[in-house]
Amino acid sequence: MKTKFKERLHSAWTSTDSMLCVGLDPTEGKLPVGLRGKPDPFFTFNKAVIDATLPWTAAYKPQFAHYAAAGRLDELGRTMAYLREVAPDRILILDAKRGDIGSTAEKYALEAFRIYDADAVTVNPYLGGDSLEPFLRDPARGVFVLCKTSNPGSADLQDLEVRGGSPLFLEVARRAAAEWNTNANLGLVAGATWPGEIGRIREAAPELPLLVPGIGAQGGDLAATLAAGLDREGWGLLINSSRGLLYASAGSDFAEAAGRAAKELCEAIRRETSTLRAEGGA
Amino acid sequence: MKTKFKERLHSAWTSTDSMLCVGLDPTEGKLPVGLRGKPDPFFTFNKAVIDATLPWTAAYKPQFAHYAAAGRLDELGRTMAYLREVAPDRILILDAKRGDIGSTAEKYALEAFRIYDADAVTVNPYLGGDSLEPFLRDPARGVFVLCKTSNPGSADLQDLEVRGGSPLFLEVARRAAAEWNTNANLGLVAGATWPGEIGRIREAAPELPLLVPGIGAQGGDLAATLAAGLDREGWGLLINSSRGLLYASAGSDFAEAAGRAAKELCEAIRRETSTLRAEGGA
Prior knowledge:
The structure is a homodimer. By secondary structure, chain A is an alpha/beta fold. Chain A is about 45% helix and about 15% strand. In chain A, the strands form two sheets. In chain A, strands 1-2-3-4-5-8-9-10 form an eight-stranded parallel beta barrel, surrounded by nine helices. In chain A, strands 6-7 form a two-stranded antiparallel sheet. Chain A is globular and about 55 Å long.
């Protein structure tokens, strides 16, 4: 029997002593000059970044659109296969933000879990609980449901007050924890740009893992995110960084620079977390 | 200068005298036995269905997940190219339900409009107005924003009361009409399973085209949908049917059967619409 997602995630955290997630979002115009025009530039770039960041990383998160827009989905497939080979104990998240109903949602689950063999996929909750069920069916695979996204426009719908005056994103967190998480494989996406909201989500969903983008390029605050988001055991987060690591250097030393940046971020997370755990804040 | 999306859509309606949209959602296990195991079965199937349904059809809507889950995205590309060739005046909608922020939303727009050369794409509004902007930037391309989806679980979030007691889906319709539609290329998705809600959406967004799935297999009511959803000019809808046409016959006459089913549905739409227009209901 396959290990349950929740156990795999916990083991990825503790075995690496890291809550860092490296976003693999290659963009043609941002690749080091030496890689441009070469065959399979995305895969070559990713492989070097993976090799350099692996010691500091609990999870990897390739973003689907970057490969699709460049006509390089084959290199997404090769990246996932390479990760499986060199990082079998890390969590591989396909960031695709899927969402559809019935048999179509089943097809998207097949895309993520069979075509790309991801451990987890990001999914949009707007279509409701029955649209999430096909993604959540296998306890060995995880689903990160968008809750409060890092962009300014997230306020448009996610902050609207519903029912007793609480915002929509909190309703999503509550339903996720109380109704949708029947296989203990559901997590939430909450942007580091909103540490106050992360605190409210953590309160509403004490046991759900949170995938947190928005550190670095988007200006999210690491210390505030950790203080608000750690779970009772002092884990519970995957802190994603993409651009801040991938493009730490624009030169031929991009991989070493990504490795250094990953080490720094991982160690900063460890320091902050250890202080918070000692304070009993977690 | 390229024709604006709104004009292209209106011209597709009037030149075909049809508001039918044919969903191209091939599934391995449902293909006619004669096509299974053959090379490019999805493209071969689609080509025959397109040829047979073209006289009755204003739009085609391939659903991305069906191709992705089968590892047949190349056949999605070939289908789009074939449609461009034989149906240059019809509206080609990539049903992908994308939704992401900033530069990633730009990548998804490139996927839809450059890689697949779609006229329009379906998009999820949960991430807010700034997440929709990259899709809406080109007035020649359209965007159908999910508003009230056809599934039972659409009630979970979309029916939640916000602000002065109106449901979330209506807030989406209002914002779409008042704020997001600055390039006159935005439409909404509203399921035929909820004709009452279609009426409220039409009231809130009198000029937006509505893409309506849920007729046929999902049990949506055609007459009620048309009565609720026609715009002031007696157009305004794309009524989608997928399974009801694609699998009208499981035998080698699948294309003829799809053509007959498309003709019947198109003529039923014409009849109902013409009655409603005569009554001045539209």
